């Protein structure tokens, strides 16, 4: 069963607008402190962090965190600003589907995996495919809600490219839903952010959604790892 949490375009609150990193490097705990915190969690779970199988785990977890949360050290807007290209006369919709992402929910730090679909109607600037994927990654590699990530991706594209409109749809499977709590193993959450012509013109929005072929046809999302 797929749960269509949201398909209708709806605004996300203003505090979901793109923001920078929250802590400077200097404001963060040391690697040793982070590893100690992992040992505490292992003991909390009921195991012995000093037994052979777990002895290197805190170091591994901290290295994994560096990758999972690398987005805090990256500025998606700055990156896009350096890499857009001018277009002369192309005035059709650009759609990129199925950008895979892995993020972590800010409520449980559980994995969120899924796909992002991006559409925009360029005014005079476009960005390459790899840059859109990179944009997704910068926001995915933070503690997130799916709604906030959807808005951040759309708002950043909108402010950097100043297109006629931006549409972002995110399909996500939430580890905190599939493996704990209500244990809805196959539920998929859908969020969207429509700006400019995608919000104002039904036909444009429909053209985008038709290109995604989402209605009643949401594909299962396999884990990335
Ligand atoms: Zn959660």
Overview in brief:
The chain is α+β, with helices and mostly antiparallel strands and 225 residues long. The chain has helices at 31-45, 57-68, 76-83, 129-140, 146-161, 175-178, 197-200, 202-212, and strands at residues 85-86, 94-105, 111-121, 125-126, 143-144, 165-174, 189-196.
Plain-language structure description:
The chain is α+β, with helices and mostly antiparallel strands and 225 residues long. The protein folds into two domains: 14-19 and 84-212, GTP cyclohydrolase I, C-terminal domain/NADPH-dependent 7-cyano-7-deazaguanine reductase, N-terminal domain (GTP Cyclohydrolase I, domain 2), CATH 3.30.1130; 25-68, GTP Cyclohydrolase I, Chain A, domain 1 (Orthogonal Bundle). 36% of the residues lie in helices and 21% in strands. A five-stranded mixed β-sheet has the order 5-2-3-6-7, sandwiched between helices. A two-stranded antiparallel ribbon has the order 1-4. The longest helix has 16 residues, at 146-161. It starts with 30 loop residues before the first helix and ends in a 13-residue tail after the last helix. It binds zinc ion. Residues 105, 107-108, 110, 174, 176 line the site of zinc ion.
């Amino acid at each position: 069963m797929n749960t269509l949490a949201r398909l209708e375009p709806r605004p996300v609150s203003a505090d979901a607008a793109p923001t920078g990193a929250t802590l400077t490097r200097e404001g963060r705990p040391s690697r040793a402190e982070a590893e100690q915190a992992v040992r505490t969690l292992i003991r909390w779970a009921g195991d012995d962090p000093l037994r052979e199988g777990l002895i290197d785990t805190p170091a591994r977890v901290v290295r994994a965190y560096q990758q999972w949360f690398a987005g805090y050290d990256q500025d998606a807007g700055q990156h896009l600003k350096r890499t857009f290209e001018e277009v002369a006369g192309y005035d059709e919709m650009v759609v990129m589907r199925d950008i895979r992402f892995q993020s972590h929910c800010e409520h449980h730090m559980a994995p969120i995996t899924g796909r992002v679909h991006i559409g925009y109607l360029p005014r005079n600037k476009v960005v390459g495919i790899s840059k859109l994927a990179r944009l997704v990654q910068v926001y995915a590699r933070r503690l997130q809600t799916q709604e906030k990530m959807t808005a951040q991706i759309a708002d950043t594209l909108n402010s950097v490219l100043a297109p006629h409109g931006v549409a972002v749809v995110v399909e996500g499977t939430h580890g905190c839903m599939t493996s704990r709590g209500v244990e809805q193993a196959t539920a998929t959450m859908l969020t969207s952010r429509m700006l400019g012509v995608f919000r104002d013109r039904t036909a444009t929005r429909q053209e985008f959604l038709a290109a995604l072929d989402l209605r009643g046809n949401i594909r299962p999302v396999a884990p990335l790892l």
